[in-house]
Amino acid sequence: MKKTILDIPVLKNKTVFLTVDFNISLHNGKIANDTRIREVLPTINYLLKKGAKLVIASHLGRPDGYDLQYSLRPVAEHLQKMVSQKVFIVDKYWFPEINQEVSQKAKQGIVLLENIRFTENERKNDNNFSKHLSCMADYFVNDAFGASHRVHASIVGIAQYLPSYAGLLLDREIRMLDKSLFNPQKPFVVVIGGAKTPEKISVIEKLLDIAGTVILGGAIANTFLAAWGFGMGKSIIDYEMIEMAKVVFWKTSRRHSALILPHDVIITTDSNQKKLITVDYNKVPSNASIYDIGPETRKYYGQLMEKAKTIIWNGPMGLFEDERFKAGTESVLKSIAGSKAFSIVGGGDTLTSIKNKDYLKKITHISTGGSAMLEYLKKGTLPGIEVLIDA
Predict the structure, then answer these.
(1) Which residue in 89, 187, 198, 292 has its CB near the most CB atoms, within 10 A?
(2) Pick the residue with more confidence: 194 or 27?
(3) Which residues pair with 252 in a beta bridge?
(4) Which is it for the CA torsion 76, 78, 81, 83, positive or negative?
(5) Residues 212 and 132 in one domain
(6) Which residues, 6+ apart, have CB-to-CB distance to 207 below 8 Å?
(7) What CATH number corresponds to the domain at position 228?
(8) Residue 109 carries which DSSP code?
(9) Which tens digits make up the pLDDT trace of 231-245?
(10) Per residue in 38-81, pLDDT tens?
(11) 84-96 exposure pattern, b = at least 16 Cβ within 10 A, e = fewer
């Protein structure tokens, strides 16, 4: 384990550089889901209560250089409503002379640096940039679990120059995931959906060693069905991963575990078409695309989760953003919320798909990481965790 903010000896009048994951979904400039902000509030509130000054860094989206369509201003406005402090956005934070402005504004409220990926030095983990960031504070705190798989300046590089601790959210993420990795109650069911097939295929191999059942949906299921030799029509498929999927099938056959694919799927020949068709997984027409799992699959997946004592879910079952194709994702959510299992749900799209806040209360742990959660399940650690002070 790592030392946390609870182990910092003196916080009063000290400045903390706090890296968080505010990479949230925006809709017409408005926040679609503020889970990632709410989850880091315990860390922010603790630091403020102890008299610390805060400089916060986060990325949003994947900007190619300085691009204000990825500005954190909507996040700053939302955060200000949730805390009892003024939140100042500081732009052009990479200039050396900006440190004086940061110091002055940190005395008046919370400083939120504009999108940390507006400079290429962040992703390069540039040593000079890391040192520049460290000059803004006395301590570094990482509470950005969702970005801790990245070897970036505000996550890894800055830790060379400051005493570095885990935030309360990062600490909880580690403890919850460790429980599922090293001491899971069985039956253990993992549900994997969405796209990002390459990174998910590699973690499926690992999960087959510890989970009795791995359930697939979304684009990744399409790739596995194609690997099995079935025609998927015009559905999203990662053809570069077909051979890897075949390897996973082969390895599954030599384990005491099950890899479950959809029995039936929802298709249309036109994405704007109102009429939906349900077909078996092996009867997808060449001119059609799969957009969701079918009713028989939803029922079967629900039965598997009903018996589970540990459940991990990452990734939607279909194009949930479209009302016509949200049934599969909602059925998984409903099954997990209705289960008595120890449950972890994570991933940006997964969190965005959860509209009913009552469901969130019934899930043991909401992970703010998608790719980071998968990487942690695969390796048992992340670069952004390794650099922190050991407990």
Answers:
(1) 292
(2) 194
(3) none
(4) negative
(5) no
(6) 190, 192, 214, 312, 377
(7) 3.40.50.1260
(8) S
(9) 999 999 999 999 999
(10) 999 999 999 999 999 999 999 999 999 999 999 999 999 999 99
(11) eeebbbbbebbee
